[in-house]
Amino acid sequence: MGEASLRGGGDWLEVVEGNLPFIVSLPHTGTTVPDEFAAGFANTKLTTRDADWHLHQVFRPILPAGTTVVRTDISRSIIDVNRPPDGQSLYPGQATTGLCPTTDFDGTPLYRPGSEPAPNEIECRRRLFHEPYARALGEQIERLRARHGRVAVLDCHSIRPRIPRLFDGTLPGLNIGTDDGRSCLPRVQAKLEAVAEQSPFTWVSNGRFKGGWITRHFGNPKAGIDSVQIEIAMNAYLLVRDENDYGAPEYEADGARLLQQTLSPFIEALLQP
Ligand SMILES: N=CN[C@@H](CCC(=O)O)C(=O)O
């Protein structure tokens, strides 16, 4: 399975330590599929179909110095670090994707028939990637909470604006997820909503995307941890994306400017809870 070589490599997980009480988590910007995992997939382009394309490039220029960043470069099609590690569904009874997804968001099978990961393979991927990501994020949260008494986590995502299997119509530009108000202080959510309201983007709180495992698991406002998910419709920053094209969309920095102008005060609001 290549466990040892992957352990030895370790360059898939990026942790940038800063001292502000603010952490950015980027669980889905990865597009890497190590050779050890490539064989069963039906088509390698499918493994990046649901990536949060270029979102780290959107955030990096606007992050205040001292921001802590945790990011994985591994494709979510290998294992999704934003899903419960025990394999429970994020949205029981609704269409979604799982810990080691077997389809993309559209429902297209990722694997050749019979090549889907078996339970021991899922467990191996969980230990290799999910556990270290969660540990890194948890350690950074504890480090900064010990220092400041309170810390904010922004779990950053983007998604194609039209995915009929997951939601009707076109997604709002900004989708704030706070686990229906459980993952952050009410005043934090209110400040973020005020920023969204002032922005040129449509927005909703706790609509189709209420926050994934990261937001729900780490958010604990009573204990000083405000955790918020931002799900950004990709047409808010990608100039061109043919939604039937399974290849990598282009990134042009100009296309992200308007979004960055909204995200900067969003980040400021999280820095002053
Ligand atoms: N682009 C990614 N979206 C997240 C949304 C989590 C949620 O459902 O709120 C994901 O699939 O993990």
UniProtKB/TrEMBL annotation:
One Gene Ontology molecular-function label: formimidoylglutamase activity
Keywords of this entry: Hydrolase
E.C. numbers: 3.5.3.8
Database matches in SUPFAM superfamilies: Zn-dependent exopeptidases
Protein name per Swiss-Prot or TrEMBL: Formiminoglutamase
